[in-house]
From TrEMBL:
It comes from marine metagenome. Residues 8-69, 77-134 form the CBS domain. This is CBS domain-containing protein. InterPro entries: CBS_dom (IPR000644), CBS_dom_sf (IPR046342), Diverse_CBS-Domain (IPR051257). SMART domains: CBS. The lineage of its organism: unclassified sequences, metagenomes, ecological metagenomes. PROSITE patterns: CBS (PS51371).
Amino acid sequence: MMNFEFSMSKMIDNNVVCLSERTKVTEAMESMHNAGVWSVIVTRRGQPEGVVTERDLLRKCFRPGEDPSEMELSDIMSYPLVTIEEDLPVGSVLKMLLMEEIRRLYVVNANGEIIGRVTQTGCLEETMNLIVGMQQIFEQM
C-alpha cells in the first residue's frame, strides 16, 4: 500500500526574497527575475510589512506618467502581509486560498520568521497529485 503525505511541508516554496521598502522597483524586478520568483516581501526596519507581486508591477508601474526606476516598493506594495503558521492544517490553508481569494500566504515559524510561501497553484498541484495517486491505487485493487 502506498503512503500519501498531504501536508503543508509539501506545499511550501522556500524561495522567498525580502527587500527594503526603499528598493527601487526596477531593482526589485531584477531580483525577482534572478531568484525566479513572482513576488517579493517588502520590509520596513527589517520587519516584513507587505508584498509586491508581478501583478502589482504590471498594474501600478507601467502606466503613462509612471517611471518604475523612480518608484520605491513602498509606493506599490500590498499590505498587510498575510501570514500563516507552519503547522496550520492543510484544509484551513486551502480554505483561505480558495474561499477568501488569496493568491499566496507567507508561512512563519514559531519565532515569527518567514520560511516560505504557499500559493493557490502549489496547493492545487499537490491536491491533484493526491487525487491521481489515490486513483492509481483504486485501479490496482
